[in-house]
């Protein structure tokens, strides 16, 4: 089955923030397509917190303490001390990855924009090894500094084959730099921009690897909070990795509410917009699953699922579509396994969405999984499986 299928040319509009029912009788008849003006503020700066979905807790818990980050920084000296300390920890001997100074690289070209800064393709001056360099302007704002510290903390903690690795950090001239693993295949968003869709077999492999990354993060009490096609990176050697931890959070307790707007609103789960429908609680692990399901469905149909490609919705219209319209469904010609997988990810009730570890055993994932009897067989089958994928990536990104 081919990786990509040509679709009629159309402009893809995946609504997002710049950088992006089934809960009672009150909701049964609310299907608002074009809502009137709403007193909705713009999403505030990134914040933190979330809860473990081990059951159906509905009572409010104490707010979490996020990693080693304070909500407000009392002085520039305090901020500088925290940044220096976190940079030392990122570059410290406790890390299991190679250490590289970002200042020892030269820029090749701009790759794009992260959650709060630019990302460049760079090359090491001595080894010629290629990396991705993320640069964030230090604006001396508490919220921005908090985000930088949180991202550093998570990048230092995360050591997993399905999570983009950090090789070093530095601060100079008001800029914070992260030297990250370079993924030469671009992102799922790049595939979508080429006006193509991804076939189920490849989506299953991509989903499996993202779920393994999410399972690792969730087991370590890390919630990503911004899973979307542009943050799922690809490599020409079969790699699939989760990137951009600018709005992620580390939980200090297993049950903690988080009702703040962070991440890209187009991929936010319904309870992010309307947490009161869930007893004031927001389950961050379940929200990551929702975002993954929506991203995979977008890759399967070639456009953002909640809004038709012809529409140009404003933020309130998008919010109403996510909260009050039925969850989008896979196309009729999709396999029963894919339909069930997506439907489970996009359940409106977050406490009914499966965990990442549970979804790894779903038939949509396991039906394509090959258990090789030898290393040679593994290489042979993997080469066949990803052959068309590599060709497609080469044609798009070379």
Automatic annotation (TrEMBL):
<feature type="region of interest" description="Disordered">
    <location>
        <begin position="1"/>
        <end position="66"/>
    </location>
</feature>
<dbReference type="InterPro" id="IPR017441">
    <property type="entry name" value="Protein_kinase_ATP_BS"/>
</dbReference>
<dbReference type="InterPro" id="IPR001245">
    <property type="entry name" value="Ser-Thr/Tyr_kinase_cat_dom"/>
</dbReference>
<dbReference type="GO" id="GO:0004708">
    <property type="term" value="F:MAP kinase kinase activity"/>
</dbReference>
<feature type="binding site">
    <location>
        <position position="134"/>
    </location>
    <ligand>
        <name>ATP</name>
    </ligand>
</feature>
<protein>
    <recommendedName>
        <fullName>mitogen-activated protein kinase kinase</fullName>
        <ecNumber>2.7.12.2</ecNumber>
    </recommendedName>
</protein>
<feature type="compositionally biased region" description="Pro residues">
    <location>
        <begin position="36"/>
        <end position="46"/>
    </location>
</feature>
<dbReference type="Pfam" id="PF00069">
    <property type="entry name" value="Pkinase"/>
</dbReference>
<feature type="compositionally biased region" description="Basic and acidic residues">
    <location>
        <begin position="1"/>
        <end position="12"/>
    </location>
</feature>
<dbReference type="GO" id="GO:0005524">
    <property type="term" value="F:ATP binding"/>
</dbReference>
<comment type="similarity">
    <text>Belongs to the protein kinase superfamily. STE Ser/Thr protein kinase family. MAP kinase kinase subfamily.</text>
</comment>
<feature type="domain" description="Protein kinase">
    <location>
        <begin position="105"/>
        <end position="365"/>
    </location>
</feature>
<keyword id="KW-0067">ATP-binding</keyword>
<keyword id="KW-0418">Kinase</keyword>
<keyword id="KW-0723">Serine/threonine-protein kinase</keyword>
<dbReference type="InterPro" id="IPR011009">
    <property type="entry name" value="Kinase-like_dom_sf"/>
</dbReference>
<keyword id="KW-0547">Nucleotide-binding</keyword>
<dbReference type="InterPro" id="IPR008271">
    <property type="entry name" value="Ser/Thr_kinase_AS"/>
</dbReference>
<dbReference type="GO" id="GO:0004674">
    <property type="term" value="F:protein serine/threonine kinase activity"/>
</dbReference>
<keyword id="KW-0808">Transferase</keyword>
<dbReference type="GO" id="GO:0051707">
    <property type="term" value="P:response to other organism"/>
</dbReference>
<dbReference type="InterPro" id="IPR000719">
    <property type="entry name" value="Prot_kinase_dom"/>
</dbReference>
């Amino acid at each position: 089955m081919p990786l990509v299928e040509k679709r009629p040319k159309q402009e893809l509009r995946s609504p997002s923030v710049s950088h992006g029912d089934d809960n009672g009788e009150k909701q049964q008849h609310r299907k608002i397509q074009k809502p009137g003006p709403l007193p909705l503020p713009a999403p505030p700066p990134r914040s933190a917190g979330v809860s473990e979905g081990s059951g159906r807790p509905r009572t409010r818990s104490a707010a979490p303490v996020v990693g080693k980050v304070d909500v407000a920084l009392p002085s520039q000296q305090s901020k500088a001390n925290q940044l220096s300390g976190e940079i030392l920890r990122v570059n410290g001997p406790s890390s299991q990855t190679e250490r590289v100074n970002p200042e020892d690289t030269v820029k090749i070209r701009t790759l794009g924009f992260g959650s709060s800064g630019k990302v460049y393709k760079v090359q090491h001056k001595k080894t010629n090894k290629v990396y991705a360099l993320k640069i964030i302007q230090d604006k001396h704002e508490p919220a921005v500094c908090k985000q930088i510290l949180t991202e550093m903390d998570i990048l230092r903690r995360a050591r997993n084959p399905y999570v983009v690795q950090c090789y070093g950090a530095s601060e100079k001239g008001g800029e914070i730099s992260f030297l990250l693993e370079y993924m030469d295949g671009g992102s799922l968003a790049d595939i979508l921009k080429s006006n193509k869709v991804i076939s189920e077999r490849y989506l299953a492999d991509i989903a499996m690897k993202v779920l393994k990354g999410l399972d690792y993060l969730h087991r370590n009490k890390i919630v990503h909070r911004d899973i979307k096609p542009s943050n799922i990176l690809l490599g020409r050697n079969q790699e699939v990795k989760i990137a951009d931890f600018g709005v992620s959070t580390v939980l200090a307790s297993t049950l903690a509410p988080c009702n703040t707007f962070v991440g890209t609103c187009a991929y936010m789960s319904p309870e992010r917009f309307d947490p009161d429908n869930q007893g004031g609680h927001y389950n961050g692990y379940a929200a990551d699953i929702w975002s993954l399901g929506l991203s995979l469905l977008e890759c399967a149909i070639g456009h953002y699922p909640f809004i038709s490609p012809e529409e140009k919705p404003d933020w309130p219209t998008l919010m109403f579509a996510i909260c009050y319209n039925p969850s989008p469904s896979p196309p009729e010609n999709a396999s029963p396994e894919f339909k069930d997988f997506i439907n489970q990810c996009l359940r409106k009730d977050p406490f009914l969405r499966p965990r990442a570890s549970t979804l790894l055993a779903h038939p949509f994932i396991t039906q394509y999984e090959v258990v090789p009897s030898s290393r040679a067989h593994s290489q042979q089958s993997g080469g066949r499986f990803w052959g068309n994928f590599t060709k497609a990536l080469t044609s798009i990104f070379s």
